[in-house]
Design goal:
Blueprint: H1 2-41, H2 47-60, H3 65-71, H4 77-90, H5 94-103, H6 110-123, H7 128-134, H8 140-153, H9 157-166, H10 173-186, H11 191-198, H12 203-216, H13 219-235
Helix pairs in contact: 1-2, 1-3, 2-4, 3-4, 4-6, 5-6, 6-8, 7-8, 8-10, 10-12, 11-12, 12-13
Amino acid sequence: MQKTGSCGILGSMQRLLFIPIFLCLIACQSEEQRAEEFVAQFGATDAARRTEASKALVAIGPGAVDALIRGLSAENLQVREMSAWTLSEIGVPTARVAPALIATLADPDENIRVVGSVALQNLGEPAVPYLIDALKAESMEIRLNAAYALGEISKPLDTILPALIGTLTDPEWNVRRLVVRALVTIGTPAIDPLIQALHSDNPDLRRMAERALSDIGTPQARRAIADAKRQLPSDR
């Protein structure tokens, strides 16, 4: 009888432990389903419904990230756009959100690429390591939009500046142009590393560094260009 009683107690305890686990599974499933429904609502013609869906997804938080990442691949442009922006509003986990947003920088639709760049800027500093990695991406669109976003975020400078200056020799002119723009956006803090680049052995790097300094246009930047040109005949 004692043995039977122990087994009965053990069985009851196991059932009691199972109930919260079962309820959690139901809640998680329900949350995921709700997230999917809200993402689908991004395709609504009514702007108020789209805004309502975005707020609901932000309230769900990280539990909505999977559904939003799937939304980035939707055929509907509106769903892709709203999914990108809402992901940046949630922001975490950065290790999933930032790479997903970086992928939008190669979207075939220009507006989505712009929204993806702005969404990454909205993430701020946590996105910087992922954007620096994106400067080496195979896609030109990803590289140039990553450079632009880094210029807008502008910190931490000790990480961003070397990465941008190293990309001044990108094989694509459009990427180099956006890198120059990013350095000009950063402004005065970029001058000293650009002056170092101005004395590089790489002629392409020197040329782009000169352009960036010229566009920054401060007396220090202009003086650095003039000094480099005076030294050029004897140094090269």
